[in-house]
Amino acid sequence: MKFTAFWQNITRNRKNKAKAINTLTDVGPNIVVRSEHTISRQEISEHALKVLYRLKKANYAAYLVGGGVRDLLLGLHPKDFDVATDATPELVRKLFGNCRLIGRRFRLAHVHFGREIIEVATFRAPHEQSADKSNGDGVTKDGMILRDNVYGTLEDDAWRRDFTVNALYYNIYDFSIVDYTNGLKDLENKTIRIIGDANERLQEDPVRMLRAVRFAAKLNFKIEPSLSASIKENIHLLDGVPAARLFEEVLKLFLHGHALSSYEFLKEYDLLKHLFLQTADSLDENGDRFITQALINTDLRIKQKKPVAPAFLYAALLWPAVKQEAAKLKQEDLSLLQVYQMAGQTVLEQQLLQILIPKRFGIPMREIWTMQARLASRKGKRPLKLLPHPRFRASYDFLLLREQSGETQLKELCEWWTEIQKVDEEAQLKMCKKLSSFAKRRKPKKKKTGL
C-alpha cells in the first residue's frame, strides 16, 4: 500500500534522530519534509493552491488541513480542500473579493470559485482560554459548545481538532507535513482516535459520534476502543443536536459511496434510533434487507458516477416505518392509496421531530410512497397516465427494489411495468386492454335476484 511504504520510510529515517531525544521531553510536532512524503501539488485543487499562495504572499500562515491531507496520504482523491491560517475571517475577506463569512458557532471564511468553495478557518485555541464572553462563545450545561471564536496558534488548532487523522497540516511555505497528534501513526494503523478526553470531546459536539462512524465507514478503519465506549455512554446527547444539522450529517453518511458500511456502523453503535427512531423500532428482517439493498444500489450508483436523489434515499430509509403504519390502517375501510397517503404523512411528521427534511425532499418522498399504490392499480388507461408522471421513474425503481429485497407477489407487477416502458403507444394500449379483459373474466358474476 502506498501509505504503508511512506510510513515505513519515515520511521526508518527518524530512528537515529529519536535516540538523541529524551522521550520524557516535549519535542514538538513531527515534521515530515517534502522528500519524505507523497503529497504533490498536482493533486491539490488549483483553487485551494490560489488561496494558500495568496495567504503566503500576505505573510499569513497557510496550511492545507483535515480530510484533504488525510485522503491524499492514503492515495484517495479528495473532493474538498480546507485551509487553516492565523489570519482572522475579517482579514481573509479583505484578501479575497469572492469571500463570504459564515457561521456563528464557528466563524469561517468561504472563498468561492464557481461551484467550488475553499473553506478557510482561523487557528482555534482551547475554548476555556477565552475570558471575554463578548467573543460570542458559549457552552450548555452538558458541555456542548454553542459558539466558539477563540483564536490561537497552529499547535492550539491541532489539539482542538476532532480526530488525529484529521489533524495533519500541509505547509505551503516548505511543502512539509506537520503532525502534532500522531495522526500519521493512526493512519498507518487504520484507527479513528479522538484527540483528548473522549467523553469531554463528544460532550462538546455530539455530532462527532456520527463523524467517527462516517470516517470509519469511508476509510475502512476501526474505531479506537475508548472512543467506542464513550460513544455508547454519550449517545443520548445526539437528541439535543439541531434537526437541521443532523440532516446534513445523514447526507454525508449515505451519499458519499459508503452508505452500506455507515448503516452497519449505525446499527452496531445503536445510533440508528437517534436518527430514524421509527425505522429502528419497526426494523424486522425484511425491512433490514430492503434498506441494505437500497444502500448497496446507492453505493453502486455513486461508484458509477450516477446521480442519487436524497428524497429516494430518505424514502427507502423510512419505508419499514411506512409499512408498519400502513398495516395498522389497512384494518380500516380505506383504499390502498389512502392508506399510503396517511401512513406517509404520519411517518414524515414524526421524522421531522428528529431530522429536518426540506419540502423539496419531503414532497417527492410522499409521492414515491403513494405511487406504490398507483402502480398496483392498473385499471383501464391509468397506467398510460402514470408513465409521464415526474415521479414515475423513481417510484418504479422503488417498486423494483421492493421486489429485489424479497417482498412477495411483486414479480408479475414489476415485469409488467418493465415491459410497458419498452413498447410503443399502440402496444401499451393493447397491454392495458388485455389486462382489463383478464380482470373482467376473473371478476365473479353477481347472482340474479329476480328483481
Concise account of the structure shown:
With 451 residues, the protein is α+β, with helices and mostly antiparallel strands.
List the helices and strands and how they pair.
Elements lengths: L1 H18 L10 E3 L13 H12 L5 E3 L1 H7 L8 E4 L3 H7 L3 E4 L5 E6 L2 E7 L15 E2 L5 E3 L6 H7 L7 E4 L5 E3 L3 H6 L2 E2 L5 H7 L3 H12 L2 E2 L1 H10 L8 H12 L4 H10 L8 H6 L2 H19 L6 H20 L6 H16 L7 H18 L5 H5 L5 H13 L6 H10 L4 H18 L9
Parallel strand pairs: 3-6, 11-12
Antiparallel strand pairs: 1-10, 2-3, 2-9, 4-5, 5-6, 7-8, 9-10
Can you characterise this structure?
With 451 residues, this protein is an alpha+beta fold. The protein has 2 domains: 189 residues, Beta Polymerase, domain 2, CATH 3.30.460; 148 residues, Orthogonal Bundle (cca-adding enzyme, domain 2). It is 52% helix and 10% strand. The protein is built from 20 helices and 12 strands. An 8-stranded mixed sheet has the order 1-10-9-2-3-6-5-4. Helix 14 packs across helix 16. It is elongated. It starts with a helix and ends in a 9-residue tail after the last helix. The relative contact order is 0.06. The C terminus is likely disordered.
Essential attributes:
single chain, 451 residues, alpha+beta, Beta Polymerase, domain 2, cca-adding enzyme, domain 2, two-stranded antiparallel sheet, 20 helices, 12 strands
Low-confidence sequence ranges: 14-25, 130-137, 446-451
CATH top level of the largest domain is Alpha Beta
Shape label? elongated
How would a crystallographer describe the biggest sheet? 8 strands, mixed
> Per DSSP, what share of the residues sits in E-state strands of 2 or more residues?
5-15%
Total domains: 2
Radius of gyration: 27 Å
User: Helical region count?
Assistant: 20
Count the beta strands: 12
Tell me the CATH superfamily of the largest domain: Beta Polymerase, domain 2
Oligomer: single chain
CATH topology of the largest domain: Beta Polymerase, domain 2
Widest β-sheet, arrangement of strands:
1-10-9-2-3-6-5-4
Termini Cα gap: 87 Å
Question: Helicity level, as a percent range?
Answer: 40-55%
Please tell me the overall pLDDT. 88
CATH architecture of the largest domain: 2-Layer Sandwich
- Class derived from helix and strand content: alpha+beta
